[in-house]
Amino acid sequence: MPSKNNEFQSESAEFREKITALDAKLHEDFNAQFVVSPFLSRKTVSFQGNKDKPAYSWYKYKEAFSAGLVEYFLCGYAGPISGKVLDPFAGIGTTLFAASAQGISADGIELLPIGQEIIHARLLAEREMTSEDITKLEHWITSVPWKQYPERVPFSTIRITENAYPPETVEAIEKYRGALRQESEKIQTILQFALLCILEGISYTRKDGQYLRWDARSGKRRPGTKAFNKGKILPFDAAITAKLKEILSDIRHAETPPTLFPMKQTAKEIRLFKGSCLEILQNLETASYGAVMTSPPYCNRYDYTRTYALELTMLGLTQAEVSNLRQEMLSCTVENREKDLLKICPQWAPFIEAADQQKLLQTVNAYLEHERVSGNLNNTSIPRMVRGYFSEMACVIGECARILKPNARLFMVNDNVRYAGVSISVDTILSDIARTLGFEVENILVVPGKKGNSSQQMGMYGRAPLRKCVYVWRKR
Ligand SMILES: C[S@@+](CC[C@H](N)C(=O)[O-])C[C@H]1O[C@@H](n2cnc3c(N)ncnc32)[C@H](O)[C@@H]1O
């Protein structure tokens, strides 16, 4: 009689075979839509493309895409879009600012307060600075008023941000926070923004996707990890004055920003809705947008609330607020509990059904559940995360189909992922769901060069390169 273990193993192998076959079939279905796009590169689909771009480079948001990518899809890909653009996962507002510079009004939705604050500060910096404001910022650079300031304004910490800075840096930050209170609200926003921009550089931490990585000099170490040295930890005064100089210089040269597509007209309106797109999308008007340009969190366990914990606590968030935020985010970490999507919006039953009926996805879900029961997953919450990710994305896709005008396009940057030795084709699964929910899949543009897997997956199952794509869907 086969042992329980052997039985599980052969069931696992059967599941994997079934997934491979379904995956190949779905790929075949979309064969005509798959195109390797020479325009796309790792640089254009990531923040790297913004590294030297005035204003875009102020805050290094690693999860951002480039302004050039937005310009290409909204202006170059199929001619200029007509009407407003929406980004339901706005991040630091790349879609909003790049579209607006091209004369396209833009709405964004963003849940994370750091993204919201960056968009707010950048709007002020670019659109509302007077010559007095500029003189005031110059004064901050030349006179460093915080240095002599007597009053310190402490900032909150949570468990995962304790002892993040050297003691002299804590003192400097607190004095800076004290001194900036003397300024107008607008200047306070810019000064606080500059502080947010430098936090990683002056701290013992480095952003590392799933969590913050700690330099050994902090005295903190994740159990089982090697001692890590992040290199130079910047002194506060030098870092903040350099950042203020950069911001000021870009504000001064704002008339001639080097864009891929030259600025056509004066910048258009930008609106930001603060909160979860799962709550906000349902309140947007039907057939009111000319395009959606977006990049949702990937289904890769990256935890934004951990990665951006220094910034969130500097903005005053408490432990409970950070935890709540984590639950509100689109499910992409193992800590996300299941959301009651029908309670959020009872009209979403057909969207959830579209995910439930997607064969490849359901087989992947069944396989992951089987692997969980067999004890083969390094985290037992992976099946719940994957299920939640696709159900929630189906609701976002259904809502996007509703708010787009007929024939309008949705552009989405996303990555495929891999769990328990199985590559999950996020691109074809979401495209198939989109087809059910009112889109025609025009293209799945593949970024040349494939992404690797986590070292854990490679060690256990070998290497299987993963596609990174931009999906182009058109509302039927
Ligand atoms: C890949 S990033 C987008 C970056 C953006 N394209 C940019 O260039 O800055 C995904 C964003 O979705 C946000 N997000 C996650 N869950 C959300 C939700 N439920 N509602 C709105 N935004 C959410 C995250 O905070 C993150 O900023």
What ligand molecules are bound, each kind once? S-adenosylmethionine
Taking the alpha carbons of the first and last residues, their distance comes to 55 Å
The secondary-structure element order is HEHEHEHHHHEEHEHEHHHHHHHEEEHEHE
Strand order of the largest sheet: 1-11-12-8-7-2-3-6
- Give the overall pLDDT as a whole number: 93
C-alpha geometry: globular
How is the CATH topology of the largest domain named? Rossmann fold
Main sheet attributes: strand count, strand direction, barrel closure: 8 strands, mixed
Strand content: 5-15%
| CA-atom Rg in angstroms | 23 Å
The domain count comes to 2
Number of strands: 12
CATH level 4 superfamily of the largest domain: Vaccinia Virus protein VP39
Briefly note the structural class of the backbone: alpha/beta
The top level CATH class name of the largest domain? Alpha Beta
Helix count, DSSP H or I runs of 4 or more residues? 18
Just name the CATH architecture of the largest domain. 3-Layer(aba) Sandwich
